[in-house]
Predict the structure.
Amino acid sequence: MAFEILYGVYANTDMTEGRGWPIPIGFSWSKSKAIKMGKGKGVCGGDADIRNIPIKVIEGKSYMLVNSVYITNPTSQEDAEEEERIARETLIHKMLDSGFTKAEIELLSNR
């Protein structure tokens, strides 16, 4: 597996002060082209940020991580809460199918 470099052009969601989040506005295999793309598109009319983005090449195809997120596993308490939520939803659907109205179900839920 090989890596290539793609150049990302990033503006900011807050173009006045730069206190927002970086957002991609373009990509290029050429750094010169990326710099041209970012001219005047940064905070306060300045140039946008240019970032090196590693691209993984697998079997001749290029892959790029387009977003990264932090995923956390639920705690045992959160697992129990999720099971309870699912059970409650299932019961509500059964009650609706049996002819109860939403108002009647809400009345029972508030007790």
Q: What stands out?
A: The two ends are 61 Å apart (CA to CA).
